[in-house]
Design a protein that fits this description.
alpha/beta; Rossmann fold; 3-stranded antiparallel beta sheet; 22 strands
Length: 1002
């Protein structure tokens, strides 16, 4: 038995790995060599001889004429055509034999690839290997080839590790191709093995990695289970080998591609496999040889594997029953130089996986994390979905507040979050990657549109990987070449889109092709999104109840708010009743499994019938072409607790055909042994999501219970509720803005910023240098959030692609110096008790003054004094000089997309215009009222209330012609949508003949 020698050992050392012990040639080897010689002679010499003797030369003796094309096609013509095809096949095979013989005899480099001759070259390689097996040359140049002959007989030794490359169905062709790749890789390893790691004290063993037996995929877990008796000891193998460079130049990671031919160090108690001796120092492999090994491996075990997958495609198509061993999720190979492409996307939130890793690093320091929940900061897609949904909810609440009945009125400001809700909102702002969501959505829809144009169906996608800005789709089986700009990835089951190419896609009017994608976590800087509706069966999740709940809550929240789907139904069973406010139209809650089974049995029957009636074999074919966007929306079931044995069997029966119908099941389990589970996962207390049979170990994406409650609180508080309900309102009165300015003469600010219109600052010197724009943007963000801005929120707003803490702190110090100090010496930029940055009251914006004037005019001093009210409303309307930050530079102020100020400001201006119009109409000053309303319409042109009030004021003037002109202008503005019902009713009252005038104008 070969053992690792300690540094104190003496004696000579082998400089290259050698098989131990050497195997003597057997009679079977000579028999194989004889038959290989006969086969080669028959194919290389016999075929052309037989063709020449029996058929002769099939091509015409001279140049063909037009008469030749008009001759009758006879049996001889078909024979000649077939003969030409056989001649071409013979020429190709002969070229393969020559290439393989040259590589075998020279012992240098890898065999070249003959174009289009994959299977032929594999056969030639086997015959040449068998022929040279009995000679000294073969034994010296490729010890792996001697093993290859045995593997064909089914006597292959157990693998110490396996190649982890491609999901799919793999047969004997795949094993043969993988074995040939292993033999060639062993040839290079024999001459140029990588430097061995120093390892740990004590004896260890070295194994040569052979092609896996019976299937293609393997994992460190299963290696440890076979050779160490406990899969949990896989980290011992990883620690022994993680720093060792292998012959192809790669190094082992916890989820790396383990290739045949590698030399792996194993603990001393390992058993099974092929033992070799390993030197402490071996020459490295040249870059050219590395590329040859990589190309050869791809042509040998991956490309040939595609054919095997296609042969098993009928078992995977349509979402039917699939061998669990083939449904693997594999991390994609990275493009060369992926982190140095110069596109600036390798860090920050624009690269979700990278952003998550930076956030994880930041979480190690309490100084840098400031107590924000890292679970949301490290989940950029989830955070973007929640932030977008929260913004829509708040905009809708504003509209309801402005347009709704009394009792919903709350003013222009949503409640300011406090405590854990404020921390959750800050974490959403820091972690969200809306640009990544937008690119993902456009890329998937663009792919669907391109496939529709080519009349091709959507391929079944098991998972999507976001890795350094690139998108990788992992298909259930090969589906040909993808449409440009998509490219084939590491094999035919990966379709890859570079981030730079994804930017070319625009908005397309097509249904979301894969709405069931949901993020589970990260692995090796890559973010995994599992397509729940495509899994051929149930996905089970084992672990403690609290850990499972955190994963289930994350999955439910992302599915409910993601930006890459149109419609879906998410059924939560046994948990998540409080999550429904996130998306009441998507989420529904059922109390028990019995109700779920009854519901799903009915829906399964309905979907089967609908698919059959529409002539589709799966929902994917229904999402391309002329199908309606909402016809094949997915239904995803999340069952947190393990069902009873009887219910589990019923669920397994329902899930057997679920992927074809667009239905997915994620079911919790205590132990993981759930009937009908296609994929089994486990969540640990440390936040690791393990799926040993899939070769996955993810850093799980979770939404713990306390954080879930905080997020739900944000959505609940965003909804307007009659009668107050804890939002600080009394039902009919508007809520005061969070910051009121002294609008008297004594309240002159020290620093005044104009934000409504062009950005101007009064009271400060303009900063010198290129940092001026950055300081102005930081001040604008602080002015729009008088409640305070978290330092990490400020940094993520100014540097969306990420920034280090020292750069952020330097900017804060520079901003503090620029704003200066109060007369008492206190800085105008300070930090409150929670660490958030706040401005002194002496730093004011025109938006603050605008809000304060309106509040004072309607609820303060002006409410009891008509003269004060009129003056304040007039002063407020004069402050409106245009849209917010009208001249902001392009490419900056991207954080405004997260704000609702774009909805608040027009509504506030409209309220001011309406109040001032009412003020003038009380004294029958209709022209003054019209002037105020027109001024407000300049900032809120789509506000129906302003138009209706303008109609009333114009009617009060008593000029029917002017009223008809206004009505015609209003009809023209409404376009094909038509007038709102309230406006139509008002015109019917004020101008009964307006419809006839509109018809004649049309």
């Amino acid at each position: 038995m070969a053992r690792r020698t300690t540094p104190s050992s003496t004696g000579p050392r082998n400089r290259t790995p050698q098989p131990l012990p050497g195997r003597r040639r057997s009679a079977g080897d000579f028999v194989k060599a004889f038959f290989a010689f006969v086969a080669l002679a028959a194919l290389v010499v016999g075929v052309p001889g037989a063709l020449a003797y029996f058929v002769g030369w099939p091509l015409p003796g001279g140049a063909p004429s037009l008469d030749w094309l008009q001759q009758e096609i006879t049996v001889g013509t078909f024979i000649n055509v077939l003969t030409v095809v056989v001649w071409l096949a013979w020429a190709q095979f002969t070229a393969c034999v020559l290439v393989e013989v040259k590589a075998a005899l020279s012992g240098v480099g890898m065999p070249g690839r003959v174009p289009g001759a994959g299977p032929s070259q594999v056969v030639a390689r086997q015959l040449v290997a068998a022929l040279l097996l009995v000679g000294a040359t073969a034994a010296g140049f490729a010890p792996g080839l001697s093993q290859f002959g045995q593997s064909l007989e089914g006597n292959q030794k157990p693998a110490a590790a396996a190649a982890q490359q491609t999901p799919g169905v793999f047969g004997q062709d795949q094993q043969s191709a993988a074995a040939s790749a292993a033999g060639a890789l062993a040839e290079q390893a024999g001459q140029a093995a990588a430097k061995a790691g120093k390892g740990q004290d004590g004896d260890t063993k070295f194994y040569r990695i052979q092609p896996p037996e019976g299937r293609h995929h393997d994992s460190l877990w299963e290696i440890a289970e076979r050779h160490l008796g406990d899969g949990r000891r896989y980290k011992e193998i990883y620690q022994l080998n993680k720093d060792r460079e292998q012959p192809d130049g790669s190094r082992l990671s916890e989820a790396s591609l383990i290739r045949p031919g590698w030399i792996m160090e194993m603990p001393a108690d390992a058993h099974g496999g092929e033992l070799v001796e390993m030197p402490d120092d071996a020459p490295k492999v040249s870059e050219e040889v590395r590329e040859q090994i990589s190309d050869y491996a791809k042509s040998g075990d991956q490309r040939q594997g595609g054919g095997a997958q296609e042969s098993g495609g009928d078992r995977q198509g349509g979402g039917g029953s699939v061998d669990q061993d083939t449904a693997h999720i594999t991390i994609p190979e990275q493009r060369p130089g992926g982190a140095e492409r110069g596109d600036g996307k390798e860090t920050g939130r624009e690269t979700p996986a990278a952003g998550a890793e930076e956030s994880a690093d930041a979480s190690d320091s309490s100084e840098s994390s400031f107590g924000l929940p890292e679970a949301l900061i490290g989940a950029p897609l989830l955070a973007a979905g929640l932030l977008g949904a929260l913004g829509r909810r708040r905009r809708h609440a504003l509209w309801q507040s402005a347009m709704g009945a009394v009792g919903l009125r709350r003013g222009m400001e949503p409640p300011t979050p406090t405590g854990s809700a404020a921390d959750a909102q800050d974490a959403l702002l820091v972690g969200a990657d809306p640009e990544g969501v937008r690119l993902l959505d456009r890329s998937l829809r663009g792919l669907a549109a391109a496939l529709t144009e080519e009349s091709r169906p959507l391929p079944t996608v098991y998972a999507a990987w976001l890795s350094h800005g690139d998108l990788h789709l992992q298909l259930a089986q090969p589906s040909g070449r993808p449409p440009a700009p998509w490219q084939l990835g590491q094999d035919e089951t990966f379709w890859t889109l570079a981030r730079t190419d994804a930017g070319r896609y625009g908005d397309v009017d097509t249904a979301a092709p894969y709405p069931g994608l949901v993020c589970l976590g990260t692995m090796d800087d890559s973010r995994l999104l599992l397509n729940l509706e495509a899994v051929p069966g149930i996905v089970s999740l084992a672990g403690t109840e609290a850990d499972r709940a955190a994963v289930f809550a994350s999955v439910a929240a992302e599915l409910a708010t993601n930006g890459w789907s149109d419609r879906m139904t998410i059924t939560l069973v046994g948990f998540g009743a409080d999550l429904t406010p996130l998306a009441p139209n998507r989420l529904r809650h059922l109390e028990d499994v019995e109700a779920l089974i009854e519901t799903m049995e009915a829906e399964t029957r309905q979907r089967r019938g609908a698919l059959g009636a529409a002539g589709h074999d799966s929902v994917l074919t229904g999402r391309t072409g002329p199908a309606q966007h909402t016809r094949w929306a997915p239904h995803l079931v999340l069952l947190a607790d393990r069902p009873s044995a009887e219910d589990a069997v019923k669920l397994a029966e329902l899930a057997a055909d679920a992927s074809r119908l667009g239905i997915g099941y994620l079911v919790g389990s205590d132990s993981g042994d759930l009937p009908g589970a296609a994929w089994e996962m486990q969540i640990t207390g440390e936040g690791k999501l393990l799926a040993p049979l899939l070769g996955l170990e993810l850093q799980a994406q979770r939404l713990p219970d306390a954080l879930r409650r905080a997020v739900v609180e944000l959505f609940v508080d965003a909804d307007p509720r009659p009668g107050g309900g804890g939002d600080g309102s009394d039902g009919g009165a508007a809520v005061a803005p969070p910051f009121l300015v002294d609008v008297s003469e004594q309240g002159r600010p020290a620093v005044y910023a104009r934000l409504v219109g062009s950005y101007e600052i009064i009271g400060l010197e303009t900063p010198d240098g290129e940092r001026s724009a950055l300081l102005h943007e930081a001040l604008a963000l602080l002015l729009l959030h008088r409640e305070g801005v978290h330092p990490r929120v400020l940094a993520s707003a100014l540097w969306p692609r990420g920034v280090t803490d020292d750069v952020r702190d330097a900017l804060v110090d520079r901003l503090r110096d620029w704003l200066g100090s109060e007369p008492d010496g206190s800085p105008r930029l300070r930090a409150d008790g929670t660490g958030r940055l706040t401005l002194a009251k002496s730093v004011v914006s025109d938006l603050d003054v605008l809000r304060s004037l309106y509040h004072e005019a309607t609820q303060g001093r002006g409410s009891g004094n008509r003269a004060v009210r009129g003056r304040m409303l007039t002063d407020a309307l004069v402050l409106v000089r245009g849209p917010l930050l009208a001249d902001r530079p392009q490419g900056r102020y991207g954080w405004l997309t997260h704000e609702i100020i774009d909805a608040q400001l027009p509504l506030l201006v409209a309220d001011i215009g309406l109040a001032l119009s009412e003020f003038h109409l009380e004294k029958d000053r209709a022209e003054k009222a019209i002037e105020a309303l027109n001024a407000a319409l300049g900032s809120a042109p789509g506000d129906e209330r302003l138009w209706n009030e303008l109609l009333r004021a114009t009617h009060a003037v008593g000029d029917p012609a002017r009223l008809r002109t206004l009505a015609a202008d209003l009809v023209a503005r409404s376009g094909a949508r038509g007038l709102p019902p309230r406006t139509e009713a008002l015109l019917d009252e004020l101008l009964p003949a307006w419809r006839a005038g509109a018809a004649s104008a049309g």
